[in-house]
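Reposting from the mailing list since nobody answered there.

I have sequence plus structure tokens for a pair of proteins and want to know whether others read the tokens the same way I do. The first protein:
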Amino acid sequence: MLAFLPPFLRGLLALVLLIVNTLLFAPPLVLVSLLRFVLPLAAWQRVCTKVAIAIAEQWISVNSGWMRLTQGMQWDVSGLEALDKKHWYLVVANHQSWADILVVQHLLNRKVPMLKFFLKKELIWVPVIGLCWWALDFPFMKRFSKAYLEKHPEKKGQDFESTRRACEKFKQTPVAVFNFLEGTRFNPSKHVAQKSPFEHLLLPKAGGMGFVLGAMGDSLHSMIDITIAYPNRSQPSFWEFLCGEVNHVMVRIELREIPDEFKGKNYFEDEAFRYEFQQWVTLLWEQKDATLVQLNQLSKDKGWSQD
């Protein structure tokens, strides 16, 4: 609707609306979360969790509203019809921009259970939003570096203890556990540094996903595999997204069965399982890379690509 405005003004307006939306919804969200500790009863805590999720879903809906207001972006999406809010899901996606999060939230809001991200422990100190993540039971992981683990091998696996505790909570209420398998945003320099065999993807990191399947695999209904492409702007920045300079987005959503043999296993101690799981993830990534190639060609056929 406001696509006639200069990009800078649209970006500024979108940013203000995002901030105001967050500041309005954060206090009731944190308050409801604190109320869980008033009564140590499981039923009461479940009620508080459901109210907190409803608040977060409304926050996402308002974000979708300002996105429609400030942007004229065209969407090409398929696969939403297969989703069900009553099921537990493992959700994976490729990662090119912080805009990916808004795109995924916009598409999946109220179609699947609340998305839960695994976050670095340091992110809890992000003003306002860190408290919101805590209030929604997002798991904060303390990750040890490879160099640290070499000096302190007894710490190996302890950085995933928070993951195990979070997975226990996730069994109580339907949830969609979200993971960017690449672990970081794609860019050409990272792609070269990794010597990635994939054309449009970085190397996948299977550890976190394998651990989740081991901890709560029996609860997970299936995996939602999301492939995101921005045909007119490769790896757009978040500011470019807010400014409405991302004119098109293409998303393919596929529901995949999780092999039963991957459930309930210990990723860190079962070497045979770890190898088989990594092979499965590699195959998944090969298919996703092929999907991105197809989407790039389709965008050219539509006249969306700048290439």
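The second protein, same order (residues first, tokens after):
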Amino acid sequence: MRRPSEFAYQAAALALSALCVQAAYMAVVRPRAEAVLAEQAERMKEDPAYVQERSPWVLLRDYEQQAELVLMLWALAMIARKRVVNGRERALLERDLLPLADGMTILPEDVREWARQLEALPGPERETLLPRAALAALHRFGATRSIADASARGREICEAETDRLDSEMSLLRYIAWAIPAIGFIGTVRGIGDAMAQAHRAMQGDLGGVTQSLGTAFNSTLIALLLSLVLMFLLHHLQEQQERLVRDAETWIDRRLLQRLRIA
């Protein structure tokens, strides 16, 4: 059930991000950018020494920047979801999933009784890392009567979770690569447009050339700024996920494995 829900969330987040950015560009960004460019053109006609100011609306107005913002919002939505899931799983570390009194131990004959307490958790909680690893370790202990086997089984679940979390980060890593790639596409497009208008520049009309070069550099500038922010968030998210797995291993070792005994 986890994969379909994750795919549905990603698809909905992408669609919502595209709609929001498109609405913002149609209603605000492009109208204001055109107004700023028109005003600057008039002032340049009146004053040949006038220096254009860098307006944020002009920096954002091209299609490459729009695509970069869509990808950025999409990535932020996925990062937010992963942080929420991570927080819920971390909250389980603070709960007493196996209420063992001081000095109380678990024998192989008691495994079924303690396993029922973990299996009685609600479905979403039972599918998280800590209950799955603890339940797997208990079942292995009951089947083999070996604490070492139980420890190895719990560690296997944690390692598999690490691999799964790392694989789920692949889409976010792709977005972190795609944003600057789109910026470079805008650079190539802008330079190509500027070269196509070189004959007009030879005649003294530099307006088209400068506007195309602005497209070239603005798209890369926005892409690099967004990439810096996104990579920081990705590293922070990955650090939280790795810490969660390590803390789950510590919980299993201290609160479960140390209570296992063989009569």
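Reply #1 (J.P.):
I read it the same way you do. The chain has a mean pLDDT of 86.
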